[in-house]
User: Fold this.
Amino acid sequence: MFNKILIANRGEIACRVIKTARKMGIGTVAIYSDADKNALHVSMADEAVHIGPPPANQSYIVIDKVMDAIRQSGAQAVHPGYGFLSENSRFAQALDAEGVAFIGPPVGAIESMGDKITSKKIAQEAGVSTVPGYMGLIEDADEAVKISNEIGYPVMIKASAGGGGKGMRIAWNDDEAREGFQSSKNEAANSFGDDRIFIEKFVTQPRHIEIQVLCDSHGNGVYLGERECSIQRRNQKVVEEAPSPFLDEATRKAMGEQAVALAKAVDYASAGTVEFIVDGDKNFYFLEMNTRLQVEHPVTELITGVDLVEQMIRVAAGEKLSISQDDVTLTGWAIENRLYAEDPYRGFLPSIGRLTRYRPPQETAAGPLLVNDKWQGEAPSGEAAVRNDTGVYEGGEISMYYDPMIAKLCTWAPTRDQAIEAMRVALDSFEVEGIGHNLPFLSAVMDHPIFIKGAMTTAFIEEQYPDGFQGVELPEADLRQIAASCAAMHRVAEIRRTRVSGRMDNHERKVGKRWVVTLQGQEYAVQVNADKEGATVKFEDGATLRVASEWTPGDQLAVLDIDGSPLVLKADKISGGFRIRNRGADMKVHVRRPRQAELAKLMPEKLPPDTSKLLLCPMPGLIVKVDVEVGQEVQEGQALCTIEAMKMENILRAEKKGTVAKINAGPGDSLAVDDVIIEFE
Assistant:
């Protein structure tokens, strides 16, 4: 077994690999760029080596720099994580030439399966059903348009060396094919150093289901069930679960056996994933094989108890698999939510900055779960577990140079319904401040009827949120619980204020029982009757709710018990009440005395400023190009400029017809959120 391994990656996956290496008694070496000198993975590793400037194409994906770090540290093996060099055969060859083990598949398998064009050809030759498409390289945008017409719109334009949603575009017409080809090519070159592009038919309304395989170099291979990855945005997975609520045992077995057969056909040895698209009749088609550890691997670990990182290390060291297919059992249900530094209220655009508050929910051990670096046994019936894989910390920064992932929050429970409920509570308990993030959206998905039924497709987000995410309007029962909670909390805060020192003599402030609570356009007149154990809140219609909590003024997380049911609220103090966040809703809750509430209704509403004649920068980023000039008339939907942030190109388009009056920024300029790029007449 190895004594020291280098992790050729950063962020949460580097931290994840370090945890298993530490459990196995193996020393670890981190690499880091200028932007990551204070990163969590650097402090967790036993050693750390600096490799260059922040951009990945000047540091993390420069093979020579990584090789220098290996020589400097004396590492015997390298784990590539995912992304960066994880599927780069030249990197694996360089390691082999240096006598360093690659904790991944053989070079031949990477070349065969890691390249999406080659993998499809091999799959076709092996008799695997594949999606129609053009497997050859495409030289320019005109050829891309021609091929797209031959295949038939819609088509998917994909980077051959792509992964993680980078270098992917859906085109529905010639203009989008031409535009998407160039953007995909640029993203592919920046992210992978390989700008080759191919095109395939985009299958509408599919499910994205993948099979986890694990093979050794002695000819043994198993599949560890499937992962449902259909909830995606911009071709990047957001929510994953294992097993899939859609598959039956026969389909699972057929997909698993086909995945293993494909892996063995290329002498695969390591953990890998075979991805399929599955239609409504459970027909499945090979999509691609990822010759690396997947981002969503924790859900497989949670239902199988198999540490995939450990198995990768053991296979790379020449060991045989310790399990056979008969040993693989799927226990319970696991769900993963990817927490991204993306603002859902701004079209999920990237958000960067400092994490002024980062408090994940407490990790708990139950089921086959990794907590505190130790794998636990089976969970007692009914218990749930929480796992949080992360690479950040409170006070750290989210950089514009890398993927916007903050953490992967996972829950496990004996049943799917229990796992969903555990996830709801965990999301409500997750405190993140300082940047925009998608916690509200994830909470909304967990409560969506389609997700609850398990009936989602890859079009879920596009279809259910066609105008973007605008927050959640909570049902009446939830609003009443929050109103009662806030009334009880406000009363506690008022009582504390009556006890402030330095009061005027002979002056005593009394706290009343009657309050009016307003939230999300609703108004509730309530009476709060408190005792030592909590408070009973009575509504005008006679209904009552019992509220119990140890919340004290200043706490930003309120954990309450409402008639025996748990309720977790993020509660920030505002004038006359609280800013409350719960289950995807972000609302101002005002708690007033009856006379105050009466007068508040007479206050005029403040209107937002008019920005209809301005193009504002929706995210911090770099302007790649400006497509218009002063005096030019633009049409609705016309491209105005392109902004790059977190390795993704974003095209800003005109919302309506107009004439350009002034351009305030040009290519190469770095902009902050809401900077004015273009002014219109």
User: Anything to note?
Assistant: Residues 132-201 form a domain with the Dna Ligase; domain 1 fold (CATH 3.30.1490.20). The longest strand covers residues 221-233. The CA atoms of residues 332 and 573 lie 40 Å apart. The chain is about 25% helix and 30% strand.
